[in-house]
Amino acid sequence: MRYDLLIRNATVVDGTRATRFEADIGVRGGKIAEIGRLKGKGDVECDASGKIAAPGFIDAHTHDDRLMLSAPDMAPKVSQGVTTVIAGNCGVSLAPAPRGMPRPVTPPLDLMDCEGGWFHFPKFANYVEELRARPAATNCALLVGHTMLRVQTMKDLDRPASQGEIKKMKEMVDEALAAGAIGLSTGLYYEPARAATTEEVIEVCRPLTRRQALYCTHMRDEGDHVVDSLEETFRIGRALGVPVVISHHKVVGKPNFGRSAETLPIIEKAMSAQKIGLDCYPYCASSTILSFSRVGVASKVLVTWSKRHPEFSGMDLAEISRKMNLSVEKTVEQLLPAGAIYLNLFPLETAVYKMTGLTAKTFGLADRGVLKPGFAADIAVFDESKIDEAASFEKPIEPAKGMVAVIVNGTVVWRGGKKTGARPGRVLSRTAG
Ligand code: ZN
C-alpha cells in the first residue's frame, strides 16, 4: 500500500481520552487513511518511535485574524503543534470593515493592527476569500466580532445601539455567517461594547439561531460580578437557542481568588439545560499563600516558602506531611505562614482530549480533533519527555520544545525544529449538532 505520508511506530493518543496505543498512521489525500500495523511505503515517512502522535491541537482562543495574512507560516502556532486556530474572539475581528477604520484605531481592535491598514475588507466574504486565495499554514474557524460591528455602525459608542443600528449589525452578522463564520463573539468588558445592553446583543445575534452558530463571549465582568455575567451569557444563549462559549474563564482580582469553586458548579449546572463550552488559560498551576482550603481542591501542592520551616521550601506538601508524620491539615498548621503552588494534573490522554476532540466538538468542527480513518490528517508528533514551553512571562516569545513534526491536512508544516513553508490551511465551517 502506498501512502502520501506514513508515520511509523507512533504511540497514538487519539483525542478521545482513550488509553494510548502503538500504531502506524497512513495518510492519503489529506486524510487519515489507516491506523494500525501498516505494510507499505509513504512518499514521505516519519519514524515516531518513542514519540506521541496526537490530533493537531485546536487553539480555541486566538486573535490570529491578521497573523494568518501577515505571517502565514504561523510559526508561533505550528511550532507548538497547533493545526487549527479559532479567530475573531472577544468582539474583535478584522472584518467586515465597510467604513475602514478610524485612526487612531479604536482599542481593543488595535490588538489586531494598531496602524489600521489591515482593516480593508468591506465584507466578511472578502476576508474569507483572501484566506482561501492565500492560505496560512494552519486551518482556521472564524468568529465575527460585535465590537467591530459597533465601530462600523455607530458614531457614538457610549450608548446602546438604536433599532436602525441593530438592523445594520444584524445584516452584517448574516453576511458573515453566509460567508463562513462559525459564530459571533462579544467583548462586553471592553469600552466600545460596554454600553450594549443584553437586549442589543440578543437582537444583533438573531441570525445565529437559524444556522445554529456559536455565541462566544469575553464577559462583561470576570471579577466581583462574574456570576451576573455568567447568568447574562446563559440568558443570551437561551434567548437565541444557540450554544455559548465562555472565553478564557477566570475570576479576576485578589478578593475573588478561589471563586472558580463557585463559578464552575454554576456553569456545570447550567450545562444540563443548555449547550455551554468554556476555555481557560493553559497553566496548570496557580501560586498563592498556603491554606488548607486550597489544598483540598488541588491534586498536588508545592510549598514555596515557610517562615517556620524554611528547609521544606520547594517540597511536595504530601512528602512533608510524611516526613513530619502528621496529617496534611496539621502539617499546614505547622508550616504557616507559608506559600504554595497548587497543581491540578491529569493524564496526557485527558490533556490532549481537551485540546482536540473536545474542542472540535465544542466548535462544531466535523472530522477534526480525533485520529481516526476518514478524519482530516491534522497531526502533532511530539516527544512526551521533552515537550515544554520555553517562553516565560519575562521572555514571552520563545518557541516551544519537543515538537517533532506537525501536519496540517496531510502536509508537513513543521519538522526538525523548523517551519517547512507549506501553507495547507483551510477555512473550516461549523457542523451544528
Ligand atoms: Zn478576551
Topology:
Blueprint: E1 2-12, E2 21-28, E3 31-36, E4 41-47, E5 52-55, E6 57-59, H1 67-70, H2 75-78, E7 82-87, H3 124-133, E8 139-145, H4 146-153, H5 163-179, E9 183-187, H6 191-194, H7 198-204, H8 207-211, E10 214-218, H9 226-240, E11 244-246, H10 260-271, E12 276-278, E13 285-289, H11 292-296, E14 300-306, H12 317-324, H13 328-335, E15 338-343, H14 348-355, H15 357-363, E16 379-382, E17 403-408, E18 411-415, E19 418-419
Parallel strand pairs: 1-4, 1-5, 6-7, 7-8, 8-9, 9-10, 10-11, 11-12
Antiparallel strand pairs: 1-2, 2-3, 5-16, 13-15, 14-15, 16-17, 17-18, 18-19
Helix pairs in contact: 4-5, 7-9, 9-10, 12-13, 14-15
The protein binds zinc ion.
Residues 90, 218, 247-248 line the site of zinc ion.
Query: In CATH terms, what is the fold-level topology of the largest domain?
Result: TIM Barrel
Number of helices: 15
Low-confidence stretches: none
Beta-strand content bin:
15-25%
Rough shape? globular
Mean of all residue-level pLDDT scores: 93
The largest sheet, given as strand count, sense and whether it forms a barrel, is: 9 strands, mixed
What is the strand tally?
19
CATH hierarchy: architecture of the largest domain: Alpha-Beta Barrel
Helix content: 25-40%
Query: What is the CATH superfamily of the largest domain?
Result: Metal-dependent hydrolases
Total number of distinct structural domains: 3
* Euclidean distance between termini CA atoms: 36 Å
Estimated radius of gyration: 23 Å
CATH class of the largest domain: Alpha Beta
Ligand catalogue: zinc ion
Q: Structural class given helices, strands, pairing?
A: alpha/beta
